[in-house]
Amino acid sequence: MIDRFTITSSSSDIAKKFKVDIPDQYKPSYNLGPTQTAMIIVNGKSATVSPAIWGLMANLSNNRNLSPKLFNLPADQALDRAANRQAVKSRRCILIVDGFYLWKQITKKKKTPYYFYQEDKSPFAVAGTWEETDEFDELGLKSFRVLTQQAQGLLANYQEDAPIILQQDVLESWTGSEIDDQIMESLLRQPYQMALNVHPVSPLINNLQLNHAELILPATPSDQHGNYTLFS
Fold first, then answer.
1. What does the angle CA 42 – CA 205 – CA 151 come to, to the nearest 5 degrees?
2. How far is 71 from 33, CA to CA, in rounded Å?
3. Strand (E) or helix (H) holding 150
4. Nearest to 26 by CA among 52, 44, 57, 60
5. 59, 95, 113, 186 - which has most CB atoms within 10 Å?
6. Are strands 92-97 and 48-54 parallel, antiparallel or unpaired?
7. For residue 200, what is the enclosing H or E element?
8. What is d(CA 189, CA 122) in angstroms, rounded to the nearest whole number?
9. Which residues, in sequence order, are CB contacts of 76 under 8 Å at separation 6+?
10. In terms of Cα–Cα distance, which of 170, 154, 163 is closest to 99?
11. DSSP code of residue 206
12. DSSP 219
């Protein structure tokens, strides 16, 4: 499952990259996870940035285990199941991020977190779907799920799944009002292309209450017995 991102870029850098206005409530995050509020660009006649909760809001309050299906939508399920396909067809969005974490299995019970980012640390777009419910209309909040695919290339060495990263030249198609079925399927099945840097980070990232710059710093992944090295 995909359950951690970073978005640490300035409002001006995000606005320049995606040609949108950034709401005043935008706050950088080094540990963005499910149930937290993020900034998404929803599809429509013009690109609009909206604050949104990561996860299907109607189900979050009754699900203590936070099942991945509440915050991830695998591409094959998005295309093969009617309800999911309709969500992709009519309610597409992009999640604005500048990095993400994957966990590599190192022993039967231990996983090491790794941080992935572009060399210039610039923001990029992750595909998703959004929804809204009457309960949250007055607050202007939406919720979203991240679209995932089977990990390929570099990412396949770390985890079985990965977020779908959209290249800059397809953002207009993805965030437009209408999308052709063939284009939609092509974007969801596109091979992983973005060049990314990667390094291991502290397992402190597992604590969703922590949110500081040290979380993305390189850390020793483990010793020969699979024991983590923590930041002091």
1. 60
2. 9
3. strand 142-150
4. 52
5. 95
6. unpaired
7. strand 197-200
8. 24
9. none
10. 163
11. G
12. -
Token digits for 48? 């609009």
CA–CA distances in Å: residue 29 to residues 18, 46, 156, 173: 18, 26, 26, 28
Tokens representing 184 are 């939609």
Q: Beta-carbon neighbour count of residue 189 at 10 Å? A: 12
Full DSSP string of 34-68: TTSEEEEEE-SSS-EEEEEEES-HHHHTT-TT--G
Task: Indicate the pairing of strand 142-150 with strand 197-200.
Answer: unpaired
Q: Write down the pTM of the prediction.
A: 0.89
User: Token pair 């149930």 is at which residue?
Assistant: 35
| CA dist 82 → 76, 78, 86, 87, 89 (Å) | 12, 8, 6, 9, 10
Q: How far apart are CA 145 and CA 191, in angstroms?
A: 20
36-71 tens-digit pLDDT: 999 999 998 787 788 999 998 765 555 455 677 889
